[in-house]
Amino acid sequence: MRQILFAGAIGLFLTLVGTPLLIKLLARKGYGQFIRDDGPRTHGSKKGTPTMGGIAFILATIIAYIAAKLITGEEMRFSGVLVLFLMAGMGLVGFLDDYIKIVKQRSLGLRAKAKMAGQLIVGIAFAVLSLQFADKQGNTPASTRLSFVADFGWSIGPVLFVVWALFMILAMSNGVNLTDGLDGLATGASVMVFGAYTFIGLWQFQESCVNADTLTNPNACFQVRDPLDLAVVASALMGACFGFLWWNTSPAKIFMGDTGSLALGGALAGLAICSRTEFLMAILGGLFVMITMSVVIQVGSFKMTGKRVFRMAPLQHHFELKGWSEVLVVVRFWIIQGMCVIVGLGLFYAGWAAEK
Length: 356
Hints:
By secondary structure, this protein is an all-alpha fold.
Protein backbone atom coordinates (compact mmCIF):
# COMPACT_ATOMS: atom_id res chain seq x y z
CA MET A 1 0.00 0.00 0.00
CA ARG A 2 2.83 2.43 0.82
CA GLN A 3 4.31 1.88 -2.63
CA ILE A 4 1.05 2.95 -4.23
CA LEU A 5 0.78 6.11 -2.14
CA PHE A 6 4.40 7.11 -2.69
CA ALA A 7 4.24 6.48 -6.44
CA GLY A 8 1.09 8.57 -6.87
CA ALA A 9 2.33 11.44 -4.70
CA ILE A 10 5.77 11.59 -6.33
CA GLY A 11 4.30 11.43 -9.83
CA LEU A 12 1.90 14.27 -8.99
CA PHE A 13 4.65 16.44 -7.48
CA LEU A 14 7.07 15.92 -10.37
CA THR A 15 4.63 16.98 -13.08
CA LEU A 16 3.25 19.90 -11.08
CA VAL A 17 6.78 21.25 -10.64
CA GLY A 18 8.46 19.90 -13.75
CA THR A 19 5.89 20.72 -16.44
CA PRO A 20 6.37 24.53 -16.23
CA LEU A 21 10.11 23.99 -16.69
CA LEU A 22 9.40 21.88 -19.77
CA ILE A 23 7.03 24.57 -21.07
CA LYS A 24 9.78 27.19 -20.84
CA LEU A 25 12.30 24.88 -22.55
CA LEU A 26 9.96 24.00 -25.42
CA ALA A 27 8.86 27.62 -25.88
CA ARG A 28 12.48 28.78 -26.01
CA LYS A 29 13.21 26.26 -28.77
CA GLY A 30 10.02 27.14 -30.63
CA TYR A 31 8.53 23.65 -30.39
CA GLY A 32 4.92 24.72 -30.90
CA GLN A 33 1.75 22.96 -32.06
CA PHE A 34 0.48 23.10 -35.63
CA ILE A 35 -3.28 23.34 -36.09
CA ARG A 36 -5.35 21.71 -38.84
CA ASP A 37 -6.85 24.21 -41.27
CA ASP A 38 -10.12 22.25 -41.49
CA GLY A 39 -10.73 22.18 -37.72
CA PRO A 40 -12.92 24.44 -35.59
CA ARG A 41 -11.95 28.10 -36.01
CA THR A 42 -11.61 28.56 -32.25
CA HIS A 43 -8.53 26.32 -32.36
CA GLY A 44 -6.53 28.92 -34.26
CA SER A 45 -5.46 30.54 -31.00
CA LYS A 46 -3.77 27.29 -29.95
CA LYS A 47 -1.14 27.56 -32.68
CA GLY A 48 2.35 27.77 -31.25
CA THR A 49 1.44 26.28 -27.84
CA PRO A 50 4.34 24.06 -26.71
CA THR A 51 3.79 20.39 -27.54
CA MET A 52 5.55 17.10 -26.67
CA GLY A 53 4.36 17.58 -23.08
CA GLY A 54 4.08 13.82 -22.75
CA ILE A 55 7.78 13.90 -21.91
CA ALA A 56 6.81 15.32 -18.50
CA PHE A 57 4.52 12.53 -17.33
CA ILE A 58 6.52 9.74 -18.97
CA LEU A 59 9.64 10.72 -17.02
CA ALA A 60 7.63 11.49 -13.88
CA THR A 61 5.99 8.05 -13.97
CA ILE A 62 9.27 6.18 -14.37
CA ILE A 63 10.97 8.22 -11.64
CA ALA A 64 7.96 7.85 -9.31
CA TYR A 65 7.94 4.07 -9.77
CA ILE A 66 11.67 3.74 -9.07
CA ALA A 67 11.54 6.17 -6.13
CA ALA A 68 8.61 4.32 -4.54
CA LYS A 69 10.58 1.08 -4.76
CA LEU A 70 13.69 2.64 -3.24
CA ILE A 71 11.77 4.29 -0.40
CA THR A 72 9.91 1.12 0.57
CA GLY A 73 12.76 -1.28 -0.16
CA GLU A 74 10.58 -3.40 -2.43
CA GLU A 75 11.84 -5.12 -5.57
CA MET A 76 10.85 -4.11 -9.08
CA ARG A 77 8.68 -6.73 -10.74
CA PHE A 78 8.66 -7.84 -14.37
CA SER A 79 5.01 -6.93 -14.99
CA GLY A 80 5.44 -3.32 -13.88
CA VAL A 81 8.71 -2.89 -15.75
CA LEU A 82 7.17 -4.29 -18.95
CA VAL A 83 4.26 -1.83 -18.81
CA LEU A 84 6.73 1.02 -18.30
CA PHE A 85 8.76 -0.28 -21.26
CA LEU A 86 5.66 -0.29 -23.44
CA MET A 87 4.72 3.22 -22.32
CA ALA A 88 8.22 4.60 -22.94
CA GLY A 89 8.61 2.79 -26.27
CA MET A 90 5.32 4.08 -27.64
CA GLY A 91 6.21 7.51 -26.28
CA LEU A 92 9.48 7.42 -28.22
CA VAL A 93 7.60 6.71 -31.45
CA GLY A 94 5.30 9.63 -30.68
CA PHE A 95 8.27 11.87 -29.85
CA LEU A 96 9.83 11.20 -33.25
CA ASP A 97 6.49 12.00 -34.88
CA ASP A 98 6.16 15.28 -32.94
CA TYR A 99 9.77 16.26 -33.56
CA ILE A 100 9.48 15.81 -37.33
CA LYS A 101 6.30 17.93 -37.36
CA ILE A 102 8.20 20.75 -35.70
CA VAL A 103 11.44 20.47 -37.68
CA LYS A 104 9.67 20.07 -41.05
CA GLN A 105 7.10 22.77 -40.17
CA ARG A 106 4.13 20.59 -41.11
CA SER A 107 1.04 19.09 -39.44
CA LEU A 108 2.09 15.51 -40.29
CA GLY A 109 5.17 13.92 -38.75
CA LEU A 110 6.39 10.39 -39.40
CA ARG A 111 5.12 8.77 -42.54
CA ALA A 112 2.32 6.30 -41.86
CA LYS A 113 4.48 3.25 -42.63
CA ALA A 114 7.35 4.45 -40.42
CA LYS A 115 5.00 5.26 -37.54
CA MET A 116 3.30 1.88 -37.83
CA ALA A 117 6.66 0.11 -38.00
CA GLY A 118 7.77 1.79 -34.78
CA GLN A 119 4.58 0.81 -33.00
CA LEU A 120 4.84 -2.75 -34.26
CA ILE A 121 8.44 -3.15 -33.07
CA VAL A 122 7.61 -1.91 -29.57
CA GLY A 123 4.35 -3.87 -29.42
CA ILE A 124 5.86 -7.16 -30.59
CA ALA A 125 8.75 -6.81 -28.14
CA PHE A 126 6.29 -6.25 -25.28
CA ALA A 127 4.05 -9.16 -26.33
CA VAL A 128 6.92 -11.63 -26.66
CA LEU A 129 8.58 -10.59 -23.38
CA SER A 130 5.28 -10.67 -21.51
CA LEU A 131 5.06 -14.44 -22.10
CA GLN A 132 8.45 -14.95 -20.45
CA PHE A 133 9.64 -14.64 -16.82
CA ALA A 134 7.30 -17.11 -15.12
CA ASP A 135 7.14 -16.87 -11.32
CA LYS A 136 7.17 -19.79 -8.85
CA GLN A 137 3.48 -20.45 -9.55
CA GLY A 138 4.13 -20.56 -13.31
CA ASN A 139 2.41 -17.21 -14.02
CA THR A 140 3.92 -15.00 -16.72
CA PRO A 141 3.09 -11.27 -16.94
CA ALA A 142 0.59 -12.01 -19.73
CA SER A 143 -1.51 -15.04 -20.59
CA THR A 144 -2.32 -16.65 -23.94
CA ARG A 145 -5.96 -16.93 -22.81
CA LEU A 146 -8.44 -14.11 -23.42
CA SER A 147 -9.76 -12.26 -20.39
CA PHE A 148 -12.57 -10.06 -19.11
CA VAL A 149 -12.26 -9.79 -15.32
CA ALA A 150 -10.04 -12.88 -15.38
CA ASP A 151 -8.81 -15.42 -17.93
CA PHE A 152 -11.49 -17.51 -19.62
CA GLY A 153 -11.76 -20.04 -22.42
CA TRP A 154 -8.83 -21.85 -23.98
CA SER A 155 -5.35 -20.72 -24.95
CA ILE A 156 -5.09 -18.97 -28.31
CA GLY A 157 -1.38 -19.80 -28.55
CA PRO A 158 1.62 -17.46 -28.56
CA VAL A 159 1.35 -16.36 -32.21
CA LEU A 160 -2.31 -15.33 -32.01
CA PHE A 161 -1.61 -13.75 -28.62
CA VAL A 162 1.02 -11.48 -30.18
CA VAL A 163 -1.47 -10.47 -32.87
CA TRP A 164 -4.16 -9.83 -30.23
CA ALA A 165 -1.77 -7.84 -28.04
CA LEU A 166 -0.71 -5.73 -31.04
CA PHE A 167 -4.35 -5.01 -31.84
CA MET A 168 -4.99 -3.83 -28.27
CA ILE A 169 -1.85 -1.68 -28.18
CA LEU A 170 -2.54 -0.04 -31.54
CA ALA A 171 -6.24 0.43 -30.76
CA MET A 172 -5.67 2.06 -27.38
CA SER A 173 -2.71 4.22 -28.41
CA ASN A 174 -4.55 5.54 -31.45
CA GLY A 175 -7.75 5.88 -29.42
CA VAL A 176 -6.05 8.18 -26.91
CA ASN A 177 -4.39 9.99 -29.81
CA LEU A 178 -7.78 10.72 -31.41
CA THR A 179 -9.22 11.83 -28.06
CA ASP A 180 -6.37 14.30 -27.53
CA GLY A 181 -8.00 17.10 -29.50
CA LEU A 182 -9.30 19.38 -26.74
CA ASP A 183 -7.53 20.89 -23.74
CA GLY A 184 -7.33 18.33 -20.93
CA LEU A 185 -9.77 15.84 -22.47
CA ALA A 186 -7.46 12.85 -22.93
CA THR A 187 -5.45 13.64 -19.79
CA GLY A 188 -8.48 13.81 -17.51
CA ALA A 189 -10.03 10.68 -19.00
CA SER A 190 -6.73 8.81 -18.55
CA VAL A 191 -6.54 9.82 -14.88
CA MET A 192 -9.86 8.07 -14.28
CA VAL A 193 -8.84 4.84 -16.00
CA PHE A 194 -5.48 4.72 -14.21
CA GLY A 195 -7.34 5.26 -10.94
CA ALA A 196 -9.50 2.25 -11.79
CA TYR A 197 -6.42 0.13 -12.48
CA THR A 198 -4.87 1.18 -9.18
CA PHE A 199 -7.95 -0.24 -7.45
CA ILE A 200 -7.99 -3.37 -9.63
CA GLY A 201 -4.32 -4.10 -8.98
CA LEU A 202 -4.73 -3.68 -5.23
CA TRP A 203 -7.84 -5.89 -5.17
CA GLN A 204 -6.11 -8.59 -7.23
CA PHE A 205 -3.16 -8.49 -4.84
CA GLN A 206 -5.40 -8.97 -1.81
CA GLU A 207 -7.26 -11.82 -3.52
CA SER A 208 -4.25 -13.36 -5.26
CA CYS A 209 -3.99 -17.13 -5.63
CA VAL A 210 -0.56 -16.80 -4.03
CA ASN A 211 -2.46 -16.21 -0.78
CA ALA A 212 -4.99 -18.99 -1.45
CA ASP A 213 -4.35 -20.59 1.96
CA THR A 214 -5.58 -17.49 3.78
CA LEU A 215 -8.59 -16.69 1.53
CA THR A 216 -12.12 -17.62 2.55
CA ASN A 217 -12.77 -18.87 -1.00
CA PRO A 218 -9.63 -19.92 -2.91
CA ASN A 219 -11.74 -20.56 -6.02
CA ALA A 220 -12.28 -16.80 -6.43
CA CYS A 221 -8.59 -15.90 -6.42
CA PHE A 222 -6.77 -14.08 -9.23
CA GLN A 223 -4.05 -15.78 -11.30
CA VAL A 224 -2.15 -12.55 -12.00
CA ARG A 225 1.57 -12.08 -11.72
CA ASP A 226 2.68 -8.96 -9.76
CA PRO A 227 -0.74 -7.29 -9.32
CA LEU A 228 0.60 -4.93 -6.64
CA ASP A 229 3.34 -3.77 -9.00
CA LEU A 230 0.73 -3.01 -11.65
CA ALA A 231 -1.13 -0.94 -9.05
CA VAL A 232 2.08 1.00 -8.33
CA VAL A 233 2.56 1.75 -12.04
CA ALA A 234 -1.09 2.78 -12.41
CA SER A 235 -0.85 5.03 -9.35
CA ALA A 236 2.31 6.68 -10.67
CA LEU A 237 0.57 7.29 -14.00
CA MET A 238 -2.54 8.63 -12.30
CA GLY A 239 -0.54 11.07 -10.18
CA ALA A 240 1.68 12.17 -13.08
CA CYS A 241 -1.30 12.78 -15.36
CA PHE A 242 -3.14 14.63 -12.61
CA GLY A 243 -0.22 17.00 -12.17
CA PHE A 244 0.09 17.46 -15.93
CA LEU A 245 -3.64 18.24 -16.14
CA TRP A 246 -3.04 21.39 -14.06
CA TRP A 247 -1.12 22.82 -17.01
CA ASN A 248 -2.99 21.02 -19.80
CA THR A 249 -6.53 22.05 -18.87
CA SER A 250 -8.23 24.92 -20.73
CA PRO A 251 -6.58 27.16 -21.70
CA ALA A 252 -3.73 24.69 -22.12
CA LYS A 253 -0.20 25.93 -21.52
CA ILE A 254 1.16 22.75 -23.09
CA PHE A 255 -0.09 19.82 -25.19
CA MET A 256 0.92 16.19 -24.65
CA GLY A 257 1.38 15.60 -28.40
CA ASP A 258 1.75 12.15 -29.91
CA THR A 259 4.56 11.69 -27.38
CA GLY A 260 2.01 11.58 -24.62
CA SER A 261 -1.04 10.09 -26.33
CA LEU A 262 0.77 7.05 -27.73
CA ALA A 263 2.48 6.50 -24.37
CA LEU A 264 -0.79 6.65 -22.43
CA GLY A 265 -2.51 4.31 -24.87
CA GLY A 266 0.35 1.86 -24.61
CA ALA A 267 0.26 1.99 -20.80
CA LEU A 268 -3.50 1.34 -20.76
CA ALA A 269 -3.16 -1.66 -23.08
CA GLY A 270 -0.22 -2.99 -21.05
CA LEU A 271 -2.15 -2.75 -17.79
CA ALA A 272 -5.16 -4.50 -19.35
CA ILE A 273 -3.05 -7.34 -20.74
CA CYS A 274 -0.99 -7.92 -17.60
CA SER A 275 -3.96 -7.65 -15.21
CA ARG A 276 -6.05 -10.09 -17.31
CA THR A 277 -8.79 -7.50 -17.99
CA GLU A 278 -8.48 -7.19 -21.76
CA PHE A 279 -12.14 -6.97 -22.77
CA LEU A 280 -12.95 -4.96 -19.62
CA MET A 281 -10.67 -2.23 -20.99
CA ALA A 282 -13.25 -1.52 -23.70
CA ILE A 283 -15.63 -0.47 -20.91
CA LEU A 284 -13.15 1.20 -18.56
CA GLY A 285 -11.79 3.21 -21.50
CA GLY A 286 -15.23 3.67 -23.03
CA LEU A 287 -14.64 7.28 -24.07
CA PHE A 288 -11.59 6.32 -26.13
CA VAL A 289 -13.59 3.53 -27.79
CA MET A 290 -16.52 5.85 -28.52
CA ILE A 291 -14.32 8.50 -30.11
CA THR A 292 -12.42 5.93 -32.16
CA MET A 293 -15.68 4.44 -33.42
CA SER A 294 -16.88 7.90 -34.48
CA VAL A 295 -13.90 8.10 -36.86
CA VAL A 296 -14.52 4.57 -38.16
CA ILE A 297 -18.20 5.38 -38.77
CA GLN A 298 -17.39 8.71 -40.42
CA VAL A 299 -14.82 7.24 -42.80
CA GLY A 300 -16.89 4.15 -43.55
CA SER A 301 -20.05 6.17 -44.26
CA PHE A 302 -18.23 8.62 -46.54
CA LYS A 303 -16.57 5.84 -48.55
CA MET A 304 -19.77 3.82 -48.96
CA THR A 305 -22.37 6.57 -49.39
CA GLY A 306 -20.42 9.79 -49.95
CA LYS A 307 -22.17 11.28 -46.90
CA ARG A 308 -20.85 12.16 -43.46
CA VAL A 309 -22.61 11.11 -40.26
CA PHE A 310 -20.93 13.79 -38.13
CA ARG A 311 -20.06 17.36 -38.96
CA MET A 312 -16.48 16.44 -38.17
CA ALA A 313 -14.65 13.49 -36.65
CA PRO A 314 -13.38 12.73 -34.04
CA LEU A 315 -16.65 13.13 -32.14
CA GLN A 316 -15.58 15.98 -29.85
CA HIS A 317 -15.17 18.31 -32.85
CA HIS A 318 -18.70 17.46 -34.05
CA PHE A 319 -20.12 19.00 -30.88
CA GLU A 320 -17.82 21.99 -31.15
CA LEU A 321 -19.15 22.69 -34.62
CA LYS A 322 -22.68 22.39 -33.22
CA GLY A 323 -21.89 25.34 -30.97
CA TRP A 324 -20.78 23.72 -27.72
CA SER A 325 -17.86 25.48 -26.03
CA GLU A 326 -14.63 23.54 -25.66
CA VAL A 327 -14.92 23.43 -21.87
CA LEU A 328 -18.51 22.15 -22.09
CA VAL A 329 -17.48 19.33 -24.42
CA VAL A 330 -14.57 18.35 -22.19
CA VAL A 331 -16.57 18.32 -18.95
CA ARG A 332 -19.46 16.34 -20.45
CA PHE A 333 -17.07 13.83 -22.02
CA TRP A 334 -15.32 13.50 -18.64
CA ILE A 335 -18.72 12.67 -17.13
CA ILE A 336 -19.22 9.96 -19.75
CA GLN A 337 -15.76 8.57 -19.01
CA GLY A 338 -16.48 8.61 -15.27
CA MET A 339 -19.65 6.59 -15.88
CA CYS A 340 -17.66 4.10 -17.95
CA VAL A 341 -15.18 3.62 -15.12
CA ILE A 342 -17.98 3.13 -12.58
CA VAL A 343 -19.66 0.51 -14.78
CA GLY A 344 -16.33 -1.19 -15.46
CA LEU A 345 -15.40 -1.43 -11.78
CA GLY A 346 -18.90 -2.67 -11.00
CA LEU A 347 -18.52 -5.46 -13.55
CA PHE A 348 -15.07 -6.29 -12.19
CA TYR A 349 -16.43 -6.67 -8.67
CA ALA A 350 -19.51 -8.55 -9.87
CA GLY A 351 -17.31 -11.02 -11.75
CA TRP A 352 -15.25 -11.65 -8.63
CA ALA A 353 -18.32 -11.91 -6.39
CA ALA A 354 -19.96 -14.39 -8.77
CA GLU A 355 -16.99 -16.72 -8.30
CA LYS A 356 -17.41 -16.53 -4.53
